[in-house]
Amino acid sequence: MTVAVITRLADDVPRRTLILLGILLAALLVAPWIVNDYLLTVLIVTLYSAYTGQAWNIMMGFAGQLSLGNALYAGLGAYLAAALFTDFGIGPWIGFLASIPVAAACGAIIGFLAFRFGVAGVYFAILTIAFGEFARIGFDHLTIVNASAGLFLPVAQYAHNDLWRLRGDPTMFYYVILAATVLAFVLCRLLLRSRIGYFWLAIREDEQAARAVGIDTFRYKMYAVVISAAATSFAGVFYAFFYNNLFPEQVFNIGRSIEMILGPVIGGVGTLFGPILGAFVLNGLAETLNATMSAVGLDLPGAKEVFYGLCLLFVILALPEGVWPPLARRLGFDKGKR
Amino acid sequence: MSALLSLERVSKRFRGLVAVDGVSFAVPQGAIFAVIGPNGAGKTTLFNLIAGALAPDGGSIVFAGEPIAGLAPDAVCRRGIARTFQLVRPFPALSVEDNVIAGALLRQHDVGTARERAQALLRRFELFERRYQPASALTLPDRKRLEVARALATEPKLLLLDEVIAGLRPTEVDRMVAVLRELNRESGLTIVMIEHVMRAVMALATRVLVLDHGTAIAEGTPEAVVRDPAVVQSYLGAEVV
Ligand SMILES: Nc1ncnc2c1ncn2[C@@H]1O[C@H](COP(=O)(O)OP(=O)(O)OP(=O)(O)O)[C@@H](O)[C@H]1O
Ligand SMILES: [Mg+2]
Protein backbone atom coordinates (compact mmCIF):
# COMPACT_ATOMS: atom_id res chain seq x y z
CA MET A 1 0.00 0.00 0.00
CA THR A 2 2.62 2.56 1.09
CA VAL A 3 4.95 1.34 -1.63
CA ALA A 4 2.16 1.66 -4.17
CA VAL A 5 1.49 5.24 -3.12
CA ILE A 6 5.18 6.13 -3.26
CA THR A 7 5.66 4.59 -6.70
CA ARG A 8 2.59 6.42 -7.88
CA LEU A 9 3.95 9.66 -6.47
CA ALA A 10 7.32 9.23 -8.10
CA ASP A 11 5.78 7.93 -11.31
CA ASP A 12 7.24 9.82 -14.27
CA VAL A 13 8.76 12.55 -12.16
CA PRO A 14 12.12 13.42 -13.71
CA ARG A 15 15.03 12.15 -11.59
CA ARG A 16 16.43 15.63 -11.14
CA THR A 17 13.13 16.83 -9.71
CA LEU A 18 13.19 13.99 -7.19
CA ILE A 19 16.77 14.85 -6.25
CA LEU A 20 15.91 18.52 -5.82
CA LEU A 21 12.92 17.66 -3.64
CA GLY A 22 15.07 15.27 -1.60
CA ILE A 23 17.75 17.90 -0.98
CA LEU A 24 15.15 20.50 -0.09
CA LEU A 25 13.42 18.17 2.34
CA ALA A 26 16.73 17.16 3.94
CA ALA A 27 17.70 20.82 4.35
CA LEU A 28 14.34 21.60 5.95
CA LEU A 29 14.66 18.61 8.28
CA VAL A 30 18.04 19.67 9.66
CA ALA A 31 17.27 23.41 9.66
CA PRO A 32 16.35 23.66 13.39
CA TRP A 33 19.86 22.54 14.34
CA ILE A 34 21.47 25.16 12.15
CA VAL A 35 19.40 28.31 12.37
CA ASN A 36 18.87 30.55 15.41
CA ASP A 37 15.54 31.04 17.17
CA TYR A 38 14.65 34.09 15.16
CA LEU A 39 15.24 32.41 11.82
CA LEU A 40 13.36 29.36 13.03
CA THR A 41 10.33 31.57 13.62
CA VAL A 42 10.75 33.01 10.13
CA LEU A 43 10.82 29.46 8.75
CA ILE A 44 7.67 28.57 10.67
CA VAL A 45 5.89 31.60 9.23
CA THR A 46 7.18 30.72 5.77
CA LEU A 47 5.97 27.13 5.94
CA TYR A 48 2.66 28.35 7.32
CA SER A 49 2.25 30.50 4.24
CA ALA A 50 3.36 27.64 1.97
CA TYR A 51 0.76 25.39 3.59
CA THR A 52 -2.11 27.89 3.39
CA GLY A 53 -1.06 28.77 -0.16
CA GLN A 54 -1.17 25.11 -1.14
CA ALA A 55 -4.66 24.82 0.30
CA TRP A 56 -5.82 27.96 -1.52
CA ASN A 57 -4.27 26.67 -4.72
CA ILE A 58 -6.70 23.73 -4.75
CA MET A 59 -9.56 26.15 -5.18
CA MET A 60 -7.98 28.72 -7.49
CA GLY A 61 -5.03 26.97 -9.10
CA PHE A 62 -6.79 23.70 -9.80
CA ALA A 63 -10.51 24.46 -10.05
CA GLY A 64 -10.21 28.11 -11.09
CA GLN A 65 -12.33 29.55 -8.28
CA LEU A 66 -10.84 32.72 -6.83
CA SER A 67 -11.28 32.82 -3.06
CA LEU A 68 -10.26 35.95 -1.21
CA GLY A 69 -11.75 34.74 2.04
CA ASN A 70 -9.73 31.72 3.11
CA ALA A 71 -8.95 33.42 6.43
CA LEU A 72 -12.49 32.42 7.33
CA TYR A 73 -11.62 28.72 7.36
CA ALA A 74 -8.37 29.26 9.24
CA GLY A 75 -10.22 31.45 11.73
CA LEU A 76 -12.89 28.82 12.31
CA GLY A 77 -10.25 26.15 12.92
CA ALA A 78 -8.35 28.47 15.23
CA TYR A 79 -11.33 29.48 17.31
CA LEU A 80 -12.87 26.06 17.49
CA ALA A 81 -9.68 24.29 18.56
CA ALA A 82 -8.73 27.08 20.99
CA ALA A 83 -12.18 27.16 22.59
CA LEU A 84 -12.29 23.39 22.97
CA PHE A 85 -8.88 23.53 24.57
CA THR A 86 -9.44 26.39 26.99
CA ASP A 87 -13.00 25.46 27.95
CA PHE A 88 -12.90 21.66 27.93
CA GLY A 89 -9.24 20.77 27.85
CA ILE A 90 -9.74 19.02 24.53
CA GLY A 91 -6.49 18.75 22.58
CA PRO A 92 -5.82 20.43 19.23
CA TRP A 93 -5.88 17.27 17.12
CA ILE A 94 -9.42 16.50 18.24
CA GLY A 95 -10.06 20.20 17.74
CA PHE A 96 -8.82 19.86 14.19
CA LEU A 97 -11.07 16.86 13.58
CA ALA A 98 -13.97 18.96 14.84
CA SER A 99 -12.99 21.92 12.68
CA ILE A 100 -12.92 19.88 9.47
CA PRO A 101 -16.70 19.51 9.18
CA VAL A 102 -17.29 23.07 10.38
CA ALA A 103 -14.94 24.66 7.84
CA ALA A 104 -16.09 22.27 5.14
CA ALA A 105 -19.73 23.13 5.84
CA CYS A 106 -18.96 26.85 5.62
CA GLY A 107 -17.15 26.30 2.34
CA ALA A 108 -20.07 24.23 1.13
CA ILE A 109 -22.56 26.99 1.96
CA ILE A 110 -20.52 29.60 0.10
CA GLY A 111 -19.92 27.22 -2.79
CA PHE A 112 -23.56 26.24 -2.97
CA LEU A 113 -24.77 29.84 -3.03
CA ALA A 114 -22.21 30.81 -5.64
CA PHE A 115 -22.32 27.82 -7.95
CA ARG A 116 -26.07 27.28 -7.80
CA PHE A 117 -26.82 30.87 -8.64
CA GLY A 118 -24.08 31.39 -11.18
CA VAL A 119 -21.92 33.69 -9.07
CA ALA A 120 -18.55 33.41 -10.76
CA GLY A 121 -15.22 35.13 -11.19
CA VAL A 122 -14.91 38.45 -9.42
CA TYR A 123 -18.38 38.08 -7.91
CA PHE A 124 -17.40 34.78 -6.36
CA ALA A 125 -14.30 36.45 -4.91
CA ILE A 126 -16.46 39.21 -3.44
CA LEU A 127 -18.80 36.65 -1.92
CA THR A 128 -15.88 34.94 -0.19
CA ILE A 129 -14.71 38.31 1.15
CA ALA A 130 -18.21 39.00 2.42
CA PHE A 131 -18.33 35.76 4.38
CA GLY A 132 -14.93 36.46 5.87
CA GLU A 133 -16.15 39.87 6.97
CA PHE A 134 -19.36 38.41 8.45
CA ALA A 135 -17.21 36.09 10.51
CA ARG A 136 -14.91 38.88 11.63
CA ILE A 137 -17.79 41.04 12.79
CA GLY A 138 -19.69 38.07 14.21
CA PHE A 139 -16.76 36.80 16.28
CA ASP A 140 -16.07 40.37 17.40
CA HIS A 141 -19.42 40.14 19.24
CA LEU A 142 -19.37 36.48 20.19
CA THR A 143 -19.01 36.53 23.94
CA ILE A 144 -18.43 32.79 24.42
CA VAL A 145 -15.06 33.31 22.74
CA ASN A 146 -14.45 36.66 24.49
CA ALA A 147 -15.53 38.72 21.49
CA SER A 148 -13.12 41.52 20.63
CA ALA A 149 -11.22 41.08 23.90
CA GLY A 150 -9.59 38.02 22.38
CA LEU A 151 -9.17 34.39 23.30
CA PHE A 152 -5.98 33.33 25.05
CA LEU A 153 -4.47 29.93 25.47
CA PRO A 154 -2.72 29.22 28.76
CA VAL A 155 0.99 29.68 28.30
CA ALA A 156 3.38 27.98 30.68
CA GLN A 157 6.89 26.66 30.54
CA TYR A 158 6.84 23.07 29.47
CA ALA A 159 9.57 20.72 30.48
CA HIS A 160 8.86 18.50 27.50
CA ASN A 161 7.36 19.03 24.11
CA ASP A 162 3.82 17.73 24.19
CA LEU A 163 2.95 16.97 20.60
CA TRP A 164 -0.49 15.69 21.48
CA ARG A 165 -1.44 18.98 23.12
CA LEU A 166 0.78 21.13 20.89
CA ARG A 167 2.54 22.67 23.85
CA GLY A 168 6.25 23.09 23.44
CA ASP A 169 9.13 24.96 21.87
CA PRO A 170 9.36 26.43 18.37
CA THR A 171 11.25 23.38 17.10
CA MET A 172 8.20 21.23 17.74
CA PHE A 173 5.95 23.72 15.95
CA TYR A 174 8.44 23.85 13.11
CA TYR A 175 8.25 20.09 12.55
CA VAL A 176 4.47 20.11 12.80
CA ILE A 177 4.07 22.76 10.10
CA LEU A 178 6.78 21.10 7.99
CA ALA A 179 4.93 17.80 8.15
CA ALA A 180 1.67 19.55 7.26
CA THR A 181 3.31 21.28 4.30
CA VAL A 182 4.79 18.02 3.02
CA LEU A 183 1.46 16.24 3.45
CA ALA A 184 -0.40 19.01 1.65
CA PHE A 185 2.10 18.83 -1.20
CA VAL A 186 1.71 15.07 -1.49
CA LEU A 187 -2.08 15.28 -1.23
CA CYS A 188 -2.23 17.95 -3.92
CA ARG A 189 -0.08 15.90 -6.22
CA LEU A 190 -2.26 12.83 -5.75
CA LEU A 191 -5.40 14.90 -6.32
CA LEU A 192 -3.99 16.58 -9.40
CA ARG A 193 -3.11 13.28 -11.00
CA SER A 194 -6.40 11.61 -10.28
CA ARG A 195 -9.77 11.89 -11.97
CA ILE A 196 -10.84 14.78 -9.79
CA GLY A 197 -7.68 16.71 -10.70
CA TYR A 198 -8.27 16.37 -14.42
CA PHE A 199 -11.84 17.50 -13.95
CA TRP A 200 -10.75 20.53 -11.92
CA LEU A 201 -8.26 21.60 -14.56
CA ALA A 202 -10.88 21.16 -17.27
CA ILE A 203 -13.27 23.38 -15.30
CA ARG A 204 -10.53 25.95 -14.73
CA GLU A 205 -9.69 26.02 -18.43
CA ASP A 206 -13.20 26.18 -19.86
CA GLU A 207 -16.26 25.45 -17.84
CA GLN A 208 -18.62 25.08 -20.79
CA ALA A 209 -16.28 22.71 -22.57
CA ALA A 210 -15.92 20.77 -19.30
CA ARG A 211 -19.68 20.34 -19.10
CA ALA A 212 -19.73 19.23 -22.73
CA VAL A 213 -17.52 16.27 -21.82
CA GLY A 214 -19.91 15.29 -19.07
CA ILE A 215 -18.25 16.84 -16.04
CA ASP A 216 -20.69 17.78 -13.30
CA THR A 217 -19.02 21.13 -12.75
CA PHE A 218 -21.14 22.05 -9.73
CA ARG A 219 -20.11 18.93 -7.89
CA TYR A 220 -16.41 19.20 -8.64
CA LYS A 221 -16.27 22.88 -7.76
CA MET A 222 -17.94 21.99 -4.46
CA TYR A 223 -15.28 19.35 -3.80
CA ALA A 224 -12.56 21.94 -4.42
CA VAL A 225 -14.07 24.45 -2.00
CA VAL A 226 -14.72 21.86 0.68
CA ILE A 227 -11.26 20.28 0.50
CA SER A 228 -9.57 23.67 0.44
CA ALA A 229 -11.62 24.87 3.41
CA ALA A 230 -10.96 21.75 5.48
CA ALA A 231 -7.23 21.89 4.73
CA THR A 232 -7.07 25.58 5.58
CA SER A 233 -8.77 25.00 8.93
CA PHE A 234 -5.72 23.05 10.08
CA ALA A 235 -3.59 26.15 9.54
CA GLY A 236 -5.92 27.93 11.96
CA VAL A 237 -5.49 25.26 14.61
CA PHE A 238 -1.75 25.59 14.25
CA TYR A 239 -1.96 29.39 14.39
CA ALA A 240 -3.97 29.31 17.63
CA PHE A 241 -1.52 27.01 19.42
CA PHE A 242 1.56 28.72 18.07
CA TYR A 243 0.57 32.29 18.88
CA ASN A 244 -1.66 31.48 21.88
CA ASN A 245 -3.91 34.46 21.29
CA LEU A 246 -6.75 35.10 18.90
CA PHE A 247 -8.46 38.37 18.03
CA PRO A 248 -11.25 38.37 15.45
CA GLU A 249 -9.87 41.62 14.07
CA GLN A 250 -6.62 39.84 13.24
CA VAL A 251 -7.62 36.26 12.55
CA PHE A 252 -10.47 37.04 10.16
CA ASN A 253 -8.85 40.12 8.70
CA ILE A 254 -8.95 40.20 4.92
CA GLY A 255 -5.21 40.82 5.10
CA ARG A 256 -4.81 37.19 6.26
CA SER A 257 -6.70 36.00 3.18
CA ILE A 258 -4.53 38.12 0.92
CA GLU A 259 -1.36 36.81 2.57
CA MET A 260 -2.51 33.27 1.83
CA ILE A 261 -2.71 33.94 -1.89
CA LEU A 262 0.57 35.83 -2.24
CA GLY A 263 2.77 32.73 -2.08
CA PRO A 264 1.06 30.83 -4.90
CA VAL A 265 0.56 33.97 -7.00
CA ILE A 266 4.25 34.76 -6.78
CA GLY A 267 5.38 31.15 -7.07
CA GLY A 268 2.90 30.07 -9.74
CA VAL A 269 -0.85 29.55 -9.48
CA GLY A 270 -1.90 26.00 -10.28
CA THR A 271 1.58 24.53 -9.90
CA LEU A 272 2.48 22.14 -7.08
CA PHE A 273 5.75 23.79 -6.19
CA GLY A 274 4.66 27.40 -6.72
CA PRO A 275 3.08 27.92 -3.28
CA ILE A 276 6.22 26.63 -1.56
CA LEU A 277 8.68 28.58 -3.69
CA GLY A 278 6.50 31.70 -3.50
CA ALA A 279 6.35 31.49 0.29
CA PHE A 280 10.14 31.26 0.53
CA VAL A 281 10.74 34.04 -1.98
CA LEU A 282 8.26 36.37 -0.33
CA ASN A 283 9.19 35.73 3.29
CA GLY A 284 12.89 35.60 2.46
CA LEU A 285 12.77 38.98 0.77
CA ALA A 286 10.55 40.47 3.46
CA GLU A 287 12.97 39.37 6.19
CA THR A 288 15.93 40.74 4.23
CA LEU A 289 14.10 44.03 3.97
CA ASN A 290 13.34 43.91 7.69
CA ALA A 291 16.94 43.21 8.62
CA THR A 292 18.22 45.95 6.32
CA MET A 293 15.77 48.47 7.71
CA SER A 294 16.61 47.75 11.33
CA ALA A 295 20.33 47.78 10.49
CA VAL A 296 20.05 51.31 9.19
CA GLY A 297 17.65 52.22 11.99
CA LEU A 298 14.58 52.79 9.84
CA ASP A 299 11.16 52.12 11.27
CA LEU A 300 8.47 52.49 8.66
CA PRO A 301 5.10 51.06 9.64
CA GLY A 302 3.41 49.42 6.68
CA ALA A 303 6.68 48.88 4.84
CA LYS A 304 5.99 45.15 4.64
CA GLU A 305 2.62 45.67 2.98
CA VAL A 306 4.08 48.10 0.47
CA PHE A 307 6.82 45.60 -0.20
CA TYR A 308 4.30 42.79 -0.76
CA GLY A 309 2.49 45.07 -3.16
CA LEU A 310 5.67 45.74 -5.10
CA CYS A 311 6.50 42.01 -5.27
CA LEU A 312 3.05 41.30 -6.59
CA LEU A 313 3.30 44.09 -9.14
CA PHE A 314 6.65 42.81 -10.34
CA VAL A 315 5.43 39.24 -10.73
CA ILE A 316 2.23 40.24 -12.51
CA LEU A 317 4.12 42.44 -14.96
CA ALA A 318 7.29 40.43 -15.48
CA LEU A 319 6.37 36.82 -14.70
CA PRO A 320 2.63 36.41 -15.19
CA GLU A 321 2.87 32.64 -14.70
CA GLY A 322 4.74 33.15 -11.42
CA VAL A 323 8.37 32.43 -10.62
CA TRP A 324 8.27 28.63 -10.76
CA PRO A 325 7.09 27.77 -14.32
CA PRO A 326 9.85 29.72 -16.12
CA LEU A 327 12.40 28.56 -13.55
CA ALA A 328 11.29 24.95 -13.98
CA ARG A 329 11.71 25.24 -17.74
CA ARG A 330 15.14 26.82 -17.33
CA LEU A 331 16.27 24.06 -14.99
CA GLY A 332 14.71 21.31 -17.07
CA PHE A 333 12.24 20.26 -14.36
CA ASP A 334 9.28 20.30 -16.71
CA LYS A 335 10.15 17.12 -18.53
CA GLY A 336 7.38 15.22 -16.79
CA LYS A 337 4.03 15.09 -18.45
CA ARG A 338 2.51 17.60 -16.07
CA MET B 1 -34.26 0.94 -37.76
CA SER B 2 -35.47 2.75 -34.67
CA ALA B 3 -34.66 6.42 -34.21
CA LEU B 4 -31.82 7.14 -31.78
CA LEU B 5 -32.60 10.85 -31.76
CA SER B 6 -35.85 12.48 -32.68
CA LEU B 7 -36.93 16.10 -32.56
CA GLU B 8 -40.54 17.14 -32.68
CA ARG B 9 -41.46 20.77 -33.55
CA VAL B 10 -38.46 22.17 -31.66
CA SER B 11 -38.23 25.97 -31.42
CA LYS B 12 -35.87 28.53 -30.00
CA ARG B 13 -36.31 32.29 -29.95
CA PHE B 14 -33.70 34.93 -29.18
CA ARG B 15 -35.74 38.02 -28.33
CA GLY B 16 -37.45 38.78 -31.64
CA LEU B 17 -35.47 36.33 -33.72
CA VAL B 18 -36.76 32.80 -34.21
CA ALA B 19 -33.47 30.93 -34.61
CA VAL B 20 -35.05 27.48 -34.75
CA ASP B 21 -38.65 27.30 -35.86
CA GLY B 22 -40.60 24.09 -35.30
CA VAL B 23 -37.95 21.73 -36.58
CA SER B 24 -38.72 17.98 -36.62
CA PHE B 25 -36.52 15.15 -37.76
CA ALA B 26 -35.35 11.71 -36.70
CA VAL B 27 -31.88 10.20 -36.82
CA PRO B 28 -31.82 6.40 -37.06
CA GLN B 29 -29.36 4.40 -35.01
CA GLY B 30 -26.11 4.07 -36.96
CA ALA B 31 -26.82 6.86 -39.43
CA ILE B 32 -24.60 9.70 -40.56
CA PHE B 33 -26.97 12.62 -40.71
CA ALA B 34 -25.95 16.00 -42.12
CA VAL B 35 -27.44 19.39 -41.35
CA ILE B 36 -26.72 22.05 -43.97
CA GLY B 37 -27.93 25.57 -44.62
CA PRO B 38 -26.73 29.14 -45.08
CA ASN B 39 -24.99 31.16 -42.38
CA GLY B 40 -27.32 32.08 -39.56
CA ALA B 41 -29.82 29.36 -40.51
CA GLY B 42 -29.90 28.08 -36.92
CA LYS B 43 -27.73 24.99 -37.25
CA THR B 44 -25.49 25.64 -34.27
CA THR B 45 -28.49 26.71 -32.22
CA LEU B 46 -30.10 23.37 -33.06
CA PHE B 47 -26.99 21.58 -31.73
CA ASN B 48 -27.03 23.70 -28.60
CA LEU B 49 -30.63 22.62 -28.01
CA ILE B 50 -29.81 18.94 -28.44
CA ALA B 51 -26.63 19.14 -26.34
CA GLY B 52 -28.33 20.99 -23.50
CA ALA B 53 -26.38 24.24 -23.85
CA LEU B 54 -29.74 25.92 -24.51
CA ALA B 55 -33.26 24.91 -23.47
CA PRO B 56 -35.84 24.90 -26.26
CA ASP B 57 -38.87 27.21 -26.01
CA GLY B 58 -41.07 24.46 -27.38
CA GLY B 59 -41.10 20.96 -28.79
CA SER B 60 -39.57 17.71 -27.66
CA ILE B 61 -36.18 16.09 -28.02
CA VAL B 62 -36.03 12.34 -27.43
CA PHE B 63 -32.75 10.44 -27.24
CA ALA B 64 -32.61 6.67 -26.85
CA GLY B 65 -36.27 6.67 -25.88
CA GLU B 66 -36.02 9.36 -23.21
CA PRO B 67 -36.83 13.07 -23.32
CA ILE B 68 -33.68 15.16 -22.92
CA ALA B 69 -34.86 18.70 -23.74
CA GLY B 70 -33.78 21.08 -20.99
CA LEU B 71 -31.26 18.72 -19.39
CA ALA B 72 -27.92 20.23 -18.40
CA PRO B 73 -25.12 19.76 -20.96
CA ASP B 74 -23.13 17.46 -18.69
CA ALA B 75 -26.19 15.30 -18.09
CA VAL B 76 -26.79 15.06 -21.84
CA CYS B 77 -23.18 13.99 -22.37
CA ARG B 78 -23.44 11.35 -19.67
CA ARG B 79 -26.43 9.92 -21.50
CA GLY B 80 -24.28 9.45 -24.56
CA ILE B 81 -24.27 12.59 -26.70
CA ALA B 82 -20.92 14.26 -27.31
CA ARG B 83 -20.45 17.48 -29.23
CA THR B 84 -17.76 19.66 -30.71
CA PHE B 85 -17.90 23.45 -30.78
CA GLN B 86 -17.92 25.37 -34.04
CA LEU B 87 -15.63 27.91 -32.38
CA VAL B 88 -13.27 25.32 -30.99
CA ARG B 89 -12.74 25.32 -27.26
CA PRO B 90 -10.10 22.85 -26.18
CA PHE B 91 -8.67 23.26 -22.65
CA PRO B 92 -5.90 25.65 -23.73
CA ALA B 93 -3.26 25.21 -21.02
CA LEU B 94 -3.64 21.43 -20.84
CA SER B 95 -1.58 19.18 -23.03
CA VAL B 96 -3.22 17.59 -26.05
CA GLU B 97 -3.19 14.25 -24.23
CA ASP B 98 -4.66 15.68 -21.03
CA ASN B 99 -7.47 17.25 -23.03
CA VAL B 100 -8.53 13.83 -24.28
CA ILE B 101 -7.90 12.14 -20.90
CA ALA B 102 -10.31 14.63 -19.32
CA GLY B 103 -12.95 13.35 -21.73
CA ALA B 104 -12.04 9.68 -21.33
CA LEU B 105 -12.30 9.89 -17.54
CA LEU B 106 -16.05 10.23 -17.84
CA ARG B 107 -16.37 6.47 -18.39
CA GLN B 108 -12.94 5.21 -17.36
CA HIS B 109 -12.38 6.12 -13.74
CA ASP B 110 -8.79 4.95 -13.77
CA VAL B 111 -6.35 7.55 -15.13
CA GLY B 112 -4.05 4.90 -16.63
CA THR B 113 -6.88 3.31 -18.60
CA ALA B 114 -8.15 6.73 -19.64
CA ARG B 115 -4.65 7.62 -20.88
CA GLU B 116 -4.47 4.45 -22.98
CA ARG B 117 -7.81 5.24 -24.51
CA ALA B 118 -6.77 8.83 -25.12
CA GLN B 119 -3.57 7.74 -26.83
CA ALA B 120 -5.44 5.38 -29.13
CA LEU B 121 -7.70 8.25 -30.18
CA LEU B 122 -4.76 10.61 -30.63
CA ARG B 123 -3.10 8.08 -32.95
CA ARG B 124 -6.28 7.84 -34.94
CA PHE B 125 -6.45 11.61 -35.36
CA GLU B 126 -2.72 11.94 -36.02
CA LEU B 127 -2.08 14.00 -32.91
CA PHE B 128 -0.03 11.42 -31.02
CA GLU B 129 3.30 13.10 -31.78
CA ARG B 130 1.96 16.37 -30.43
CA ARG B 131 0.47 14.86 -27.29
CA TYR B 132 2.65 16.77 -24.81
CA GLN B 133 2.12 20.16 -26.45
CA PRO B 134 -0.37 22.53 -24.85
CA ALA B 135 -3.59 22.58 -26.84
CA SER B 136 -3.15 26.33 -27.31
CA ALA B 137 -0.06 25.64 -29.44
CA LEU B 138 -1.99 23.66 -32.07
CA THR B 139 -3.09 24.96 -35.47
CA LEU B 140 -6.81 25.37 -36.05
CA PRO B 141 -7.19 22.13 -38.05
CA ASP B 142 -5.37 20.26 -35.28
CA ARG B 143 -7.57 21.84 -32.65
CA LYS B 144 -10.62 20.71 -34.58
CA ARG B 145 -9.27 17.17 -34.63
CA LEU B 146 -8.54 17.43 -30.93
CA GLU B 147 -12.15 18.43 -30.28
CA VAL B 148 -13.39 15.38 -32.13
CA ALA B 149 -10.98 13.12 -30.24
CA ARG B 150 -12.00 14.61 -26.89
CA ALA B 151 -15.69 14.20 -27.70
CA LEU B 152 -15.15 10.59 -28.77
CA ALA B 153 -13.25 9.92 -25.56
CA THR B 154 -16.55 10.21 -23.68
CA GLU B 155 -17.70 7.08 -25.58
CA PRO B 156 -20.84 8.60 -27.04
CA LYS B 157 -23.66 6.84 -28.83
CA LEU B 158 -24.27 10.01 -30.80
CA LEU B 159 -21.62 12.45 -31.96
CA LEU B 160 -22.54 16.02 -32.90
CA LEU B 161 -19.93 17.63 -35.16
CA ASP B 162 -20.21 21.35 -35.84
CA GLU B 163 -18.19 22.18 -38.98
CA VAL B 164 -15.15 20.08 -38.14
CA ILE B 165 -14.27 19.68 -41.80
CA ALA B 166 -14.59 23.29 -42.97
CA GLY B 167 -11.14 24.87 -42.92
CA LEU B 168 -9.21 21.63 -43.41
CA ARG B 169 -6.94 21.20 -46.42
CA PRO B 170 -8.24 18.82 -49.13
CA THR B 171 -6.02 15.91 -48.04
CA GLU B 172 -7.07 16.49 -44.44
CA VAL B 173 -10.70 16.49 -45.51
CA ASP B 174 -10.26 13.06 -47.03
CA ARG B 175 -8.59 11.72 -43.91
CA MET B 176 -11.28 13.11 -41.62
CA VAL B 177 -13.98 11.65 -43.87
CA ALA B 178 -12.23 8.28 -43.76
CA VAL B 179 -11.89 8.32 -39.96
CA LEU B 180 -15.54 9.26 -39.46
CA ARG B 181 -16.67 6.53 -41.83
CA GLU B 182 -14.49 4.02 -40.00
CA LEU B 183 -15.92 4.99 -36.62
CA ASN B 184 -19.41 4.71 -37.98
CA ARG B 185 -18.80 1.28 -39.51
CA GLU B 186 -16.75 -0.21 -36.69
CA SER B 187 -18.79 0.74 -33.68
CA GLY B 188 -22.08 1.80 -35.20
CA LEU B 189 -21.53 5.33 -33.93
CA THR B 190 -24.34 7.62 -34.98
CA ILE B 191 -23.16 11.00 -36.26
CA VAL B 192 -25.00 14.25 -36.83
CA MET B 193 -22.80 16.73 -38.65
CA ILE B 194 -23.21 20.36 -39.55
CA GLU B 195 -21.12 20.91 -42.64
CA HIS B 196 -20.60 23.42 -45.41
CA VAL B 197 -18.16 21.25 -47.33
CA MET B 198 -20.60 19.54 -49.70
CA ARG B 199 -17.95 17.09 -50.87
CA ALA B 200 -17.79 15.65 -47.36
CA VAL B 201 -21.56 15.71 -46.96
CA MET B 202 -22.07 13.84 -50.21
CA ALA B 203 -19.39 11.31 -49.27
CA LEU B 204 -20.61 10.60 -45.77
CA ALA B 205 -24.24 11.42 -45.15
CA THR B 206 -27.02 8.92 -45.41
CA ARG B 207 -29.55 11.69 -44.93
CA VAL B 208 -29.45 15.48 -45.12
CA LEU B 209 -31.59 18.13 -43.42
CA VAL B 210 -31.58 21.63 -44.88
CA LEU B 211 -32.26 24.56 -42.57
CA ASP B 212 -33.03 28.07 -43.70
CA HIS B 213 -34.04 30.89 -41.40
CA GLY B 214 -34.71 28.39 -38.65
CA THR B 215 -37.04 26.16 -40.66
CA ALA B 216 -36.40 22.79 -42.20
CA ILE B 217 -36.89 23.37 -45.93
CA ALA B 218 -35.90 19.90 -47.11
CA GLU B 219 -34.88 16.51 -45.86
CA GLY B 220 -33.80 13.42 -47.76
CA THR B 221 -30.89 11.57 -49.29
CA PRO B 222 -27.96 13.79 -50.32
CA GLU B 223 -28.67 13.18 -53.99
CA ALA B 224 -32.32 14.18 -53.67
CA VAL B 225 -31.61 17.21 -51.53
CA VAL B 226 -29.08 18.79 -53.88
CA ARG B 227 -31.60 18.59 -56.70
CA ASP B 228 -34.36 20.20 -54.64
CA PRO B 229 -35.15 23.61 -56.21
CA ALA B 230 -35.83 25.25 -52.84
CA VAL B 231 -32.44 24.11 -51.57
CA VAL B 232 -30.64 25.20 -54.68
CA GLN B 233 -32.25 28.61 -54.46
CA SER B 234 -31.67 29.30 -50.78
CA TYR B 235 -28.32 27.69 -50.22
CA LEU B 236 -26.52 25.84 -52.92
CA GLY B 237 -27.28 28.44 -55.58
CA ALA B 238 -24.76 30.73 -54.03
CA GLU B 239 -22.11 28.08 -53.90
CA VAL B 240 -20.46 26.01 -56.53
CA VAL B 241 -21.55 22.46 -55.98
N1 LIG C 1 -27.02 33.16 -27.91
C1 LIG C 1 -27.61 33.86 -28.88
N2 LIG C 1 -28.24 35.01 -28.60
C2 LIG C 1 -28.86 35.71 -29.59
N3 LIG C 1 -28.89 35.36 -30.85
C3 LIG C 1 -28.27 34.22 -31.21
C4 LIG C 1 -27.59 33.41 -30.23
N4 LIG C 1 -27.06 32.35 -30.86
C5 LIG C 1 -27.39 32.47 -32.16
N5 LIG C 1 -28.11 33.58 -32.37
C6 LIG C 1 -28.66 34.00 -33.65
O1 LIG C 1 -29.45 32.94 -34.13
C7 LIG C 1 -29.29 32.80 -35.53
C8 LIG C 1 -28.83 31.41 -35.85
O2 LIG C 1 -27.49 31.28 -35.43
P1 LIG C 1 -26.67 29.93 -35.53
O3 LIG C 1 -25.38 30.16 -34.91
O4 LIG C 1 -27.50 28.82 -35.02
O5 LIG C 1 -26.50 29.79 -37.11
P2 LIG C 1 -25.69 28.72 -37.94
O6 LIG C 1 -26.65 28.09 -38.87
O7 LIG C 1 -24.90 27.84 -37.06
O8 LIG C 1 -24.72 29.67 -38.78
P3 LIG C 1 -23.20 29.44 -39.27
O9 LIG C 1 -23.26 28.65 -40.53
O10 LIG C 1 -22.72 30.83 -39.53
O11 LIG C 1 -22.49 28.76 -38.18
C9 LIG C 1 -28.31 33.87 -35.97
O12 LIG C 1 -29.06 34.96 -36.46
C10 LIG C 1 -27.61 34.24 -34.70
O13 LIG C 1 -27.21 35.59 -34.73
MG1 LIG D 1 -22.97 27.49 -36.75
Please characterize this protein's 3D structure.
The complex is a heterodimer of chains A (338) and B (241). Chain A is mainly alpha-helical and 338 residues long. Helix content of chain A is 73%, strand content 1%. Chain A has a single domain (10-331), classed as ABC transporter involved in vitamin B12 uptake, BtuC (Orthogonal Bundle), CATH 1.10.3470. The longest helix of chain A has 27 residues, at 217-243. The model of chain A has no long low-confidence stretch (mean pLDDT 91). With 241 residues, chain B is an alpha/beta fold. Chain B contains 9 helices and 10 strands. In chain B, 47% of the residues are buried. The model of chain B has no long low-confidence stretch (mean pLDDT 94). Chain A binds chain B through residues 193-195, 198-199, 201-202, 205-206, 208-217, 337-338, and chain B through 51, 53, 72-74, 77-78, 82-83, 85, 89-95, 97-98, 101-103, 105-106, 109, 111, 114, 132, 150-151, 153-154. The structure holds adenosine-5'-triphosphate and magnesium ion. The site of adenosine-5'-triphosphate (ATP) has 12 residues of chain B, from strand 2 and helix 1. Magnesium ion binds at residues 43-44, 86 of chain B.
Give keywords.
heterodimer, A: 338 residues, mainly alpha, ABC transporter involved in vitamin B12 uptake, BtuC, two-stranded antiparallel ribbon, 15 helices, 2 strands, globular, B: 241 residues, alpha/beta, Rossmann fold, 2 domains, 6-stranded mixed beta sheet, 4-stranded antiparallel beta sheet, 9 helices, 26% strand, binds adenosine-5'-triphosphate, binds magnesium ion
